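Cross-posted from the bioinformatics board.
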Amino acid sequence: MLETGFGYWDAIAWIVAFIVICIVVYIIRGFGKREHRKEAEEPFFSGVELPDEKVHVKASNIYWGFIESMKGYYDVMKKMHDGIINNYISWFIFIAVLLLIILFAPEVIP
Amino acid sequence: MIWNVPFITVALLIAIGLYAVMFKRNLIKIAIGITIIESGVNLFLITLGYRKGGVAPIYTNLPSGVKVPEGMVLPVPQALTLTSIVIGVAVLALMLSFIMKMYQHNKSLDSHSRRLKG
Amino acid sequence: MIYNEAIPAILIGLPLLAAFITPIINLASRKARNAFVIAVLAIEELLIILLAWHVFTDGIVIYTMGAKNPSIVPLQAAVPIRIVLEIDGMAAFMGLISCTVAMAAGIYSIAFIKEGNGKSRYYTLLLIMLAGMLGMEFTGDLFNLFVFLEILSIASCGLIAYRQHADAVEGAFKYLVVSNIAALFVLFAIALFYAQYDLLNIAAIAKVMQYTQLDKIALVLLVAAFAMKCGAVPMHFWAPDSYSTAPAAITAMLVAASQASLYALFRVCFTLYGSLMDYQTIGLAIIIFGLLSMFIGVTMALPQKDIKRLMAYHAISQTGYMLLGVGVGLYLLGSSDFNVYGIKAMEGGIFHIINHAMYKGLLFLTAGAIYYRLGTRNLNEMGGLGHTMKFTSIFFIIGALAIAGIPPFNGFASKLLIYEACYKVSPILSIVAMLVSVLTLASFIKVFHSAFMGPKMHDVKEVPKSMLIGMAVLTFVIIFFGLFPGWVVSHIVHPAVMALVDKTAYINAVMGG
Amino acid sequence: MNDETNDGRMSIIVRTIATMMLPFILIFSFYVIMHGHLTPGGGFQGGAIAASAIVMMIAAYGHKMMEKRISEDGLSMVESVGATIFAVVAFIGVIMAASFMYNFLVGTPLFGETPPFGSNPGILNSGGVLPILNIAVGMKVIGGLAAVVLIMALAGDEEGDKK
């Protein structure tokens, strides 16, 4: 039992509930008509005819749309992650100077 | 005033070293830059332990008339510097061997001819 | 037991001793060398459990190097002489992580690293790396911290470049440059402390700390350097480069190593400065580091094609959760809200450290298993591995669900604590954290789909037993933590958080009442 | 220096002088190591001097010649033995129920004497475990630095094994 400040979390109770719900779902599934399963073997997809051989989607094609729609963001990020060691250190110095300015600003500007 | 010279040198050394690491594209020059920063930090440590007119902190070599321990320089920063130098030697050796390997693979010492990015 | 009080020294000394005996045993036989290394790692695990139990029940353990009676610190005019090891709850907690990951990595490496001229050196460096991590976590002396930081980074660089590919050497070089610059800045900050207080002991400096201008500069240098070493955005660029090119077992170790730097960052913020500094400014800075790390890490992970590079970006993103949780705690340090949900946020952040070490270690090990069989890290060339590598895919599913924060695995418990505690500070923090969690799940679905699902493309076998045992060790810990998060938080994480917050106890343990 | 014909050897003058200097440099390095607890110096400095003697021989005779005399594995073994001695000495303190790195040799016939206070030449037979640790560090530094230089010299013409 894990107190979170708002409520609590108990993994064992969650698993018990999960199993109970699974059993209930299975029982409800049992009420269905038996004849219906035969028809379900050939699912209907509108428009496209499913190819027979199995197709494996390559990793670079997954989330193509997401990456394409955020192209502006990713272009900036690609530019940042340029892999040049000089820039790694420059970022570090930049952050150190920025922290220094933030920490000393209240004293300089009253 | 004159006693500030070592500290000014420390600042200069660190600045020069950082300049080399940040703006020089040659990998060997980056290694040199790191060594210069390290020299700056070591000089800073040594300067902290110095006392005006102090002698080396070895009891058995003490010249006569030196007060103990006021007349000696602080030994702790020297021990720290020595440790730091030893570590620096190891880092420099490792860094140069990496640079050699990278040169064998890439035939270039340019930091922009990298393989890993994105 | 008479050697009971010597456990901290044995924990650091034994890997160092074993590291240099390993090449000598290697002359006799390779099997004996493997057995020796695994025995040493198992003893380390046993000892750290004993020590952690001791710390969590009886409080801070002190060990003075080279003294007649190590449990008493010799004080001379309020200056502690000799190097002191000081193990409080947080240090013991981090030690548990390091030893567990090292044991899994050591077992995994028996089959994973091909026999050859350098394998005894591989184990030597692995043991030195463990000693460096434990030293960083246990030491009560700032200069000693610097020395162990350098030992750790040099050993890690040697291991990253172990295979001597062009990529591996480049990753190692970048890591070496970055960690050496960070270490030099740490040394400079230590020199600033020494200049003002003539002290190197953390507890002694914390006692006399004035928060002068020089202390502020030292604070900035330490925070920036350790944040870079633990891979916080925007100083994270080295992490994907070196994580992706190292051998997989070493990448799991590197995760634990960067968490040792995270520990040093927290130690500096809470113990060395504590409520003396502008804790709200620094806390806010750490929260911003955390948010940036979470978001940029996970979005950069999505389009990656290299499996280990993808996981490395996730490591950055998960580090953001820890920074967020503990940053919220630091931000609230002085206020009355701290006891209500500041501690809860810190519990979440600290609990996430151990969870992350376990499941990210496991995920890197499964990536190594794929590399071991296919010889590639490119996701486009994978597919259908689930048909033959059944255990590996089960381990991968467990790791992926845990990292995405799906109940009932351990990632969910720590993320829940962070979400709820951060919601009180600002709902935006929780929303970003949840969004990142969703994107994490999305990108691991991508990995699972492209590596394990699909038609059978490669004729491969399951990986050797020792690699499976290495992964199983971490899986066991994940499931245990997932099932009993309440017990873990109240018995391990809460003492660690209280040790971090309670600055006076840390000081008094060395300096006396 | 004509590399093509002589395998990187330097002229006979250099080689003779280097051979003559070698024992003196080594003796000086042993002096620095052994007197580490009395005078400035110690294991690292002495080891570096000895390693520089090996570097001098590599420069004078060429690395191909030196490779036959000193093997990299031998140097690594010297390094391992040195480090092992260091760690074992540190652990003896734990076994004696004192602490890690405890100076257990004080008061024993071996390195156990206490030097008098004030200005004096010092007593070699003092310092407890420090001379032993200096010797161990010296071995490690000789092995390590010489191996690094040898490997770097070798890596020029073949795929040498990295440290």
